[in-house]
Write the structure tokens for this entry.
Amino acid sequence: MHFYSEFTIFNLLIPVYSNERKPQALSAGQDMKVSKRKKEHVEIALKKDVRFRNKTSGFEAFDFIHCAVPEMRFEDVDTGVEFLGKSLSFPFMITAMTGGYTGARAINRALAEVCREEHLALGIGSQRQIMENGDHLDTFRIARETAPGAVIIGNIGAAQLAQSRDREAFQRMADLIGADAVAVHLNPLQELLQREGNRDFRGVLKGIGWLVKILKIPVIAKEIGCGISEKAARLLLDEGVVYIDVAGAGGTSWAAIESFRNGKSGHAAAFRDWGIPTAVCLETVSRIPQARIIASGGIENGITIAKALAMGAELTGAAFPILKAHADADPGKLAGLVGDWREQLKMVLFLTGCRNTDELRRSRPLMRIHPPDCRPESSGEPR
Ligand code: FNR
């Protein structure tokens, strides 16, 4: 049926393994550059239009098979799930965004407050700096301090992992935030587009396998908006990762963000629409029986959450829409947004005759309504 075949992202990942590699500590100058970059990412995402331009997440190609006879009370529909041994009010996490510069502390605190109150999971941004020199520790630790009982997920880049086997540093990184799991972000396109990017992805798979062995908590592999193919997912699962967060195309385009950082130079604008739409990731990765999938990239309401679950995801996640709601002048906006998404999911469950998300995942009441042309309906309106 397919409009996208296997991509060759993982041709970039040529494993080379060494026990000896130690992390390269960041100099004060490098550290300032990393902090500046992290601040710019948040500011650009909020000020500019960083969506994919000619591609969507693909969810619009599917619709639910409406059930005219639900035979249940709406109040009895249960959106709750267990994730990493803790209860969530619905299967949703705020995916990794920030940490590592002064303003990040307030953002992570606000996100953690919402996760504590609404019973959601929270991913924090890349912890590279604290792993390497302990700087900006408080901007990450605030998440656990604010939400002691929440599911909190640490984060590290694949390229850093490939270049280091410092067991203590990785354990410290996880302990610092009392992490329930650690996400390894796979971002080969972003690294290629950043002037300061790391272009050596050798050893990433072995590095992930090593991390799986040394940590006592599960490892999640995630993209950042270009998607994870079936082939890539199989390679990652072979290394022992527990969850695959497909983080597909259709939401935030990292090439768009980097194009604003690089001005007109570089190739970022040409790669703005690069990636596998999230719905396509789900259709393909869910063919792997043992895959436990997190669906993110272009999740924008409770209906897309429900579609992702019906397509095989256990959990869903979003980054930019959450950041945007947090940045709104109205302090209740973020809690209101996630409350609306939970209610919309509950309505979909009712309207498809499912009492809970397990039933939705098992019965998959979806129909394909048109082949996706993967173009957004509106053109160029800033979100
Ligand atoms: C991100 N994302 C991200 N991912 C990651 O693994 N580590 C990180 O440090 C960051 N940083 C980050 C900053 C900002 C400002 C944004 C918007 C996003 C990627 C994020 O977790 C997610 O995978 C993508 O943004 C796709 O999801 P959305 O934005 O389409 O919901």
The radius of gyration is 20 Å. The longest strand covers residues 152-157. Residues 1-23, 378-383 have pLDDT under 50 and may be disordered.
